[in-house]
Design goal:
By secondary structure, the chain is α+β, with helices and mostly antiparallel strands. 42% of the residues lie in helices and 15% in strands. It contains 46 helices and 36 strands. The strands form seven sheets. It has a ten-stranded mixed beta sheet, with helices on both faces. Strand 18 and strand 19 form a beta hairpin. Helix 28 packs antiparallel against helix 30, helix 29 runs antiparallel to helix 35 and helix 33 packs antiparallel against helix 38. It is elongated. The two termini are 72 Å apart.
Length: 1333
């Protein structure tokens, strides 16, 4: 464990089958460790982490003081017991978390691998694999370490891998061994292999490897194409052998994982600061009282020396003052009692259980509940400003489906009328025995066109069955398994298969299909391969009749330019269809063909052969040859594939955006796919002012592109603001501008001279988006470029980073944490997301299809991205609200309790005498006031969960840290000090002249102590009753039970019975009984309570009446709903539940801007691989299946840019519009006009109730008052909403079970409720406008 680390490597030397040689370099073993502790380090490291909490150090210091008898007036066990309890609870929790990490590590380290040792294969645990070992991998096995591929069961040393754990891409990738080692097929040859590899040292570059193989006096260059990285899965390859180059922590996967970090919330950090301030305040009070003690002892104390001498070793007034200072430090330490930290841990544990128990975050399909894997970050969930999300498996389901198509100007696959009968899924089995039973299609007109032999339809599906690089394997007659390198191709070939054009098998020179039940073999003459520049692929085939035809599919933006002029009319129609498909969020491809004569083919094939053999500029010459033949084509039609999002993703992103949460997508996928997903998720919309793409390859070019982007944003913002005075809702068209940055829509910019750039970027008006590639991001993350990138990207509404490595994901998160000081959340589902999850303040793991590495590294986990909405807007907001209310009340009650000692010091000669009975001091925080504040901290709500989801702006106070900050802290302290003044001086003034009924004076110490303590408990109990916003049975039992418990315990402790048993311990015998029987005492308590509580009530009444918060307004609407509730019938179409399938319920129509929906997750090189025959087996020319997945669509925007005509902040006006659930089938399609979609969260809620408290609604424009449509939220399930005359009525906001009044009250109780009802009646009677209920 304490072994000296070897020096950093400059290069790595590995010799095969020679452990003795390799061990002298002290390379890391293959054992991985993601845990934080072990048995030896747990205690010291965990205690070190816990004592980073200033409060723990503070209580340790107090404990040391209490061990000194001369200054301690309290027993030492009153501090050590709760301190040990807090440390133990936290240590057990941390140990439990780390145990699961150890368990995960053990599971991985103990996986079995076949290692070639002394000529034979032996099973070894992964942890025992060493650098230089040769291991055997079999199909569907995980790669144990970073391997150099030596040989494979496939021809030419090829193998196929899936890298989803590394880069999130689910499409297959091909790797090939060096030709000289590909022949080492059997164990004997491999056992004698003694080649030496010299390569680069361990690094985190996933796409790069540089090395050389030395064997038999020759050297061979090694590249990334020869490497199998840990975390990959071997697919469709029977077996392969590899040489271990990097193991364990040196592997590229682990190099990208990042370290496990100790995460603390912003409230924790603030509390550390506040504890320091309180300690300083405590010292000041101690100094004041110590000075008072010195003055008193010098001026007055000498008069008492005869019968009250100083205790040794005190011999003068200065030393007495010194000891008095420390005594008061101990007495006054309850301003921050250690019970605060015990209570905080209990509350966080309760919040974690609420997350675990939430049935609305339970996925029944995979039987997976949400899980809070940590208990320390719950309130941080209510303060998130930035979300960084992976794409594949997080936003998408990794499932693709053939959705629509256009053939010869006729579109197929149209959606049905939601009010009409739902179409039946087509059954292809009677028509085609080879059909895929899992294929879904609903438009029977396309099947009829195939059956009747429509020529264009047959050509369309023939193209799909021929123009691809799919491999097939037919394990039994009719049982076809397709292995697609691209998920798009798998969906297209499967569609052709079901419509009667079945791809059966292929050889390097032929393609065999079954067309309408007839077997047909085509001669494959050439494959014109796909790449990101061409954005298309073609095949040239010869049919059985000798006719030669070129079939091409690709992006419409490039393919339509290469059509014959005779296609103009058809091209216009097809372009309209493509626009419709793209607007529906579908991935589109255009299809075309060209008949070739023998002469044309001979001439072109000669040119193609010469280009392929060219020694220089081979790629350019091939591209020119492809360009020549792909001209004058005839358009067939277009396809539309739905890349299925997870359920509710667009709605979730839209609602989170309304909560002012910025969402960045960080993906390893290509740009086209990522951008398509951005449109599908509604991150990118056609109504955005502009979408900028940063694609520079140098630091200077990236800097220039970012600056040009900012200039463009500022220019367009000024133009936009200038037009807004005359034209409402003027939007710029959407366009992709290469090499330009972007900005996010923000506050409306004032017409004034331009402020400094930093301020100007914060006031950008308009909605912009930024797309940046991985190579550009690498430059943008450099130290001198970070500010440029942050200022541009953070002004954007949406940011998408493509082709990023796992480490870059973490660097982006760290950059935002550094420059924006904002709470960040990272969410992902694969091992490539682990470093990002660890770097963010909060890490969320999706238990998806890419393993459990992300879940194991996360703080929270669930199975669907849509649950993030409820995690943040409900649990996160509630946790933040509860913790803030808890802390405010806790500091208040303890200052009210402790400061009485301070005032009493001026009346007791500064002698460190306590006011209360010592048992009251001990039990005050543990028994009398602990349970009510715990109940409030665990169960309290300001609004129900349904309202939290309907009004996302309720989330903003957490982002702005409004509920508990330094200002709120001082307000609580001031209220506590005021209460302590009242509780001390009111009883002191009254009891000083009061007498009992017998004439005996009441002005004694014990009577005063009992009166003050009783008044204190009653006042803080009434205060927490006012602070509680959600009453449950537990709240009632704890609040009123604690009050009753106080009287019971006090009477018991001051009874004759206990005094008789322990006469030296109980000094207040009989005080409670005699004191509480006096009417003047109860009058004193009532007067003190009224003086403490009435100002608070008055202030809160005025605040709600004059300056209501958004939550106050939402509570008001809740009360009106409960009062005016009527039986509501179901709306037409029933309650519509939004799902991730974008085709079900899309908002709006596509704008006029031209944008291709093209996306094709394909890798260049497969065409050449097929025609070379290198990937063909002699025994079987087909390959196993690959479940195609990916997803993407183009969806119109949820809402347009908000045009606010008032600068009144929502917090002041209480105005907001809900984020309503997805509309039911009875609602007509929403218009793109600003009159509907420009409604914002600033629209008055009062309109919904029919009793608007603000009479200004009559003069406000209807455009402003319309609520902004927002997508379906999870809590909106079952709600039916209607739009009536452009106004969202109360019925539209009412959801089944959402308004259950069970115990829900507003924070000021029945009195405040009466005020709000009076206000509603007054406003309703004065309002000139009545809205329909």
């Amino acid at each position: 464990m304490f072994r000296k680390r070897p020096p950093p490597e400059e290069e790595r030397k590995v010799r095969a089958n020679d452990r003795e040689y390799n061990e002298k370099f002290q390379y890391a073993s293959n054992c991985i460790m993601t845990s934080k502790y072990n048995i030896v380090t747990f205690l010291p490291v965990n205690l070190f982490e816990q004592f980073q909490e200033v409060a723990n150090t503070y209580f340790l210091f107090l404990l040391i003081l209490q061990l000194i008898p001369q200054i301690s007036s309290l027993s030492w066990f009153t501090t050590i017991v709760p301190l040990a309890l807090v440390l133990s609870i936290t240590a057990v929790k941390d140990a439990t978390d780390d145990y699961f990490r150890h368990k995960s590590d053990s599971q991985v380290n103990n996986r079995q691998s076949q290692v070639l040792i002394r000529g034979s294969l032996q099973n070894e645990k992964w942890m025992n694999v060493r650098v230089g070992d040769i291991i055997k991998l079999e199909n569907n096995q995980f790669v144990a370490a970073d391997l150099l591929l030596l040989s494979s069961s496939e021809p030419h040393g090829l193998c196929y891998i899936e890298t989803a754990e590394l880069d999130g891409e689910s499409n297959m990738k091909v790797r090939q061994s060096v030709s000289v080692t590909s022949e080492l097929g059997d164990q004997n040859n491999l056992a004698s292999f003694d080649g030496e590899v010299v390569c680069e040292p361990p690094n985190n570059k996933l796409d790069r490897f540089c090395g050389t193989l030395y064997w038999r006096d020759k050297k061979y260059t090694l590249s990334n194409q020869n490497m199998l990285l840990r975390g990959c899965v071997l697919r469709n390859t029977e077996a392969c052998y590899g040489l271990v180059i990097f193991a364990g922590p040196d592997t590229k996967l682990m190099q990208n994982s990042g370290r496990t970090k100790f995460k603390r919330t912003s409230i924790d950090r603030l509390m550390n600061t506040l504890v320091l301030w309180i300690f300083g305040f405590l010292v000041c009070m101690g100094v004041i009282l110590a000075v008072g003690n010195a003055v008193w002892e010098r001026e007055v104390g000498f008069l008492f020396q005869s019968y009250l001498p100083w205790d040794p070793p005190v011999d003068n007034f200065l030393f007495s003052a010194f000891l008095s200072f420390w005594s008061y430090v101990i007495i006054l330490n309850t301003v921050v009692p250690i019970s605060l930290y015990v209570s905080v841990e209990v509350i966080r544990l309760g919040h974690s259980y609420f997350i675990n128990w939430d049935r609305q975050m339970f996925c029944s399909q995979c039987n997976t509940p949400a899980e809070a894997r940590t208990t320390t970050l719950n309130e941080e969930l209510g303060q998130v400003e930035y979300i960084f999300s992976d794409k594949t498996g997080t936003l998408t389901q990794n499932i693709m489906s053939f959705n629509k198509c256009s053939i010869n100007g006729q579109t197929y696959g149209e959606g049905s009328d939601p009010l009409g009968p739902q179409p039946k899924r087509l059954d292809f089995t009677p028509f085609n025995p080879l059909a895929d039973p899992d294929f879904c299609f609903y438009d029977d007109t396309l099947l009829e066109a195939v059956k009747v032999g429509d020529t264009h339809t047959h050509k369309f599906f023939r193209l799909l069955s021929l123009c691809h690089t799919v491999m097939s394997e037919e394990k039994s007659e009719g049982e076809l398994l397709y292995k697609a390198q691209s998920p798009d191709e798998g969906a297209l070939v499967t569609a052709a298969r079901n419509f009667g054009f079945v791809f059966r098998s292929r050889t390097p020179g032929t393609i065999t299909t079954t067309e309408m039940g007839r077997s047909v073999t085509y001669t494959l003459l050439a494959i014109l391969d796909f790449n990101n520049i061409r954005k298309r692929m073609s095949v040239i085939v010869r049919n059985s009749e000798g006719r030669i035809c070129l079939y091409c599919k690709g992006a419409d933006t490039v393919l339509l330019e290469r059509l014959h002029p005779c296609n103009q009319e058809l091209m216009n129609i097809t372009s309209d269809h493509l626009n419709e498909y793209a607007a529906d969020g579908l991935r589109t491809l255009a299809l075309a063909y060209r008949d070739l004569s023998e002469d044309e083919w001979d001439a072109w094939s000669e040119r193609h052969r010469s280009a392929a053999k060219a020694a220089s500029c081979r790629e350019d010459r091939l591209a020119a040859a492809y360009e020549q033949i792909e001209q004058d084509m005839v358009l067939l039609g277009a396809t539309a594939i739905e890349d299925k999002l997870q359920e509710g993703v667009p709605e979730t992103i839209a609602v989170l955006s309304l909560a002012n949460i910025k969402i960045w997508v960080l993906t390893g996928d290509k740009q086209e796919t990522a951008v398509n997903i951005g449109y599908s998720c509604k991150m990118l919309t056609d109504d955005m002012t502009e979408v900028f793409i940063i694609s520079g390859h140098t630091v200077q070019s990236v800097r220039q592109e970012l600056r040009r982007a900012r200039d463009r944003m500022i220019e367009m913002s000024r133009t936009r603001d200038g037009k807004e005075e005359g034209v409402e809702g003027c939007f710029m068209g959407n366009g992709f501008r290469e090499g330009q940055g972007d900005s996010r829509g923000g506050e409306k910019q004032l017409q004034c001279p331009p402020p400094p750039p930093s301020n100007l970027m914060d006031n950008i008006s308009g909605e912009f988006a930024l797309v940046i590639n991985g190579h550009s991001l690498a430059h943008a993350l450099e130290a001198d470029m970070e500010t440029e990138f942050v200022s541009t990207a953070c002004a954007c509404k949406a940011v998408i980073c493509c082709r990023v490595t796992p480490l870059q994901k973490a660097q982006v998160v760290e950059m935002i944490k550094k420059h924006k000081k904002a709470v960040t959340l990272a969410i992902g589902d694969g091992a490539n997301d682990v470093s990002m999850i660890k770097s963010a303040h909060i890490g969320v793991g999706i238990s998806g299809q890419e393993g459990i590495q992300a879940v194991l590294a996360s703080d929270y986990s669930f199975s669907q991205f849509r649950f993030l909405q409820r995690l943040l807007l409900v649990h996160g907001r509630w946790s933040y609200l509860r913790m803030c209310r808890f802390l405010c009340y806790f500091f208040y009650k303890n200052f009210a309790f402790t400061m009485v000692h301070f005032w009493f010091g001026f009346y007791c000669g500064f002698s460190a005498q306590t006011v209360y009975d010592q048992y009251f001091i001990t039990l005050y925080n543990i028994v009398y006031t602990s349970l009510p504040v715990l109940a409030m901290g665990i169960f309290d709500q300001d609004v129900p969960d349904q309202r939290s989801l309907e009004y996302p702006k309720l989330y903003e106070p957490g982002q702005l840290n409004l509920l508990f900050n330094k200002r709120e802290f001082f307000i609580c302290i001031a209220q506590g000090i005021y209460t302590s003044v009242v509780l001390f001086f009111v009883p002191c003034a009254i009891l000083s002249d009061a007498t009992q009924s017998t004439g005996v004076p009441l002005a004694d110490y014990q009577t005063f102590a009992v009166t003050t303590a009783t008044a204190l408990v009653i006042v803080v109990s009434v205060q927490i009753a006012l602070d509680t916003g959600f009453w449950t049975v537990i709240n009632h039992v704890f609040v009123w039970g604690s009050l009753g418990l106080y009287f019971s315990i006090m009477l018991a402790l001051q009874s004759q019975t206990l005094f008789g048993i322990f006469p030296n311990q109980f000094h207040f015998v009989g005080s409670a009984q005699s004191t509480l029987l006096q009417p003047v005492v109860w009058l004193t308590i009532a007067l003190a309570t009224a003086i403490c509580i009435v100002p608070v009530l008055a202030f809160r009444f005025l605040k709600v009446d004059l300056k209501p918060q958004l939550s106050d307004t939402v509570r008001y609407t809740q009360l009106v709903r409960q009062k005016k509730r009527k039986p509501a019938g179901r709306s037409v179409g029933g309650a519509w539940r939004g799902v991730g399938s974008v085709s079900e319920g899309r908002l709006g129509a596509r704008g006029s801007s031209r944008r291709s929906g093209y996306a094709f997750a394909h890798t260049e090189g497969f065409g050449e691989l097929i025609t070379s025959g290198k990937n063909m087996r002699l025994s079987s020319l087909a390959m196993a299946t690959f479940a195609s997945r990916h997803s993407s669509s183009w969806i119109d925007t949820l809402r347009r840019k908000k045009h606010s005509h008032t600068n009144t902040p929502p917090s002041a006006s209480g105005e907001s519009s809900p984020a309503p659930s997805c509309v039911s089938g009875s609602i007509p399609p929403l218009s793109n006009s600003s009159s509907v979609l420009c409604g914002s969260q600033d629209a008055p809620i009062e309109e919904e109730t029919g009793a608007a408290p603000d009479t200004q609604t009559a003069s406000t424009s209807s455009t402003q008052n319309l609520p902004a449509p927002a997508p379906a939220s999870e809590a909106a399930d079952g709600s039916a909403q209607t739009l009536n005359a452009g106004v969202l009525t109360p019925a539209a906001l009412r959801s089944q079970g959402g308004d259950s009044p069970g115990g829900w009250t507003i924070s000021l109780g029945a009195v405040q409720e009466a005020l709000l009802r009076w206000k509603g009646r007054a406003s309703a009677s004065n309002s000139p406008v009545k809205l329909a209920e």
